[in-house]
Amino acid sequence: MTRSLHISYIQEMEYGEAWDKQKQLVRAIDEQQQGEHLLLLQHPPTYTIGSQRHPEHLLLGPEQLREQGIALFEIDRGGDITYHGPGQLVGYPLLYLEGGKGLDLHGYLRNLEQVIINYLGSCGIEGSRKPEYTGVWVGDEKICAIGVKFNKCRQRKGFVTSHGFALNVKAGIGREGFRGIIPCGIQEYGVTSLEDVTGRSYDVEETAREIVPYFTELFGYTGEL
């Protein structure tokens, strides 16, 4: 049986505000006061450091961050450091995963990757995985970073997901936003975007709208943007 998913797009939201909203929704979904959500949005320039905690992968000091107007957050998702900024579509699925024998947290990550791979295929792009890394790649360049948190429910058996994926859409985001870090701690590979790969122009909100059917079909929801 398919479940209904509330889907929204926000042109820009400060990272701290979005993080607080995720935590509020996680509690509400656990308590069955809210339905499941997919938040799609863009952030102003922001670096986030995940639970692996490798501050040495941030190449800028506090003064440089202030000069460049880049916020910094140490957060509770898995993974290392990454960049969020205008021209990147960020997706935060807040989904209830029922506990029990069928619970597959690893499979959830693979499904997120598959949503992006399927969407890229519709754009004529061959997306792929690298076995040693989470995310989606085009050749040896990462086009989509993925990092999640599984929040153990207090009111029922299972988990509510938070954080999610960051798909690079606009050209140049890899050269500008990512050059102040070692993205995800990976030095040997680069970063790319939809526009860099195809040479075509993409609108971030339209990209969000186009991705939604791939997400709802693979995860078994109904809902539209």
Task: Detail the topology: elements first, then pairings.
Elements: E1 3-4, E2 6-10, H1 15-30, E3 37-41, E4 46-49, H2 62-68, E5 71-74, E6 81-84, E7 88-94, E8 96-98, H3 105-122, E9 128-130, E10 133-138, E11 141-152, E12 158-168, H4 173-176, E13 190-191, H5 194-198, H6 204-219, E14 221-222
Parallel strand pairs: 1-14, 2-3, 4-5, 11-13
Antiparallel strand pairs: 3-7, 4-6, 7-12, 8-12, 9-10, 10-11, 11-12
Helix pairs in contact: 3-6
Protein name: Octanoyltransferase
Function: Catalyzes the transfer of endogenously produced octanoic acid from octanoyl-acyl-carrier-protein onto the lipoyl domains of lipoate-dependent enzymes. Lipoyl-ACP can also act as a substrate although octanoyl-ACP is likely to be the physiological substrate.
Pfam families: LplA-B_cat
Explain what this protein looks like in three dimensions.
The chain has one domain: Bira Bifunctional Protein, Domain 2 (BirA Bifunctional Protein, domain 2), CATH 3.30.930. The chain is built from 6 helices and 14 strands. The longest helix has 18 residues. It is globular, with a radius of gyration of 17 Å. The two termini are 21 Å apart.
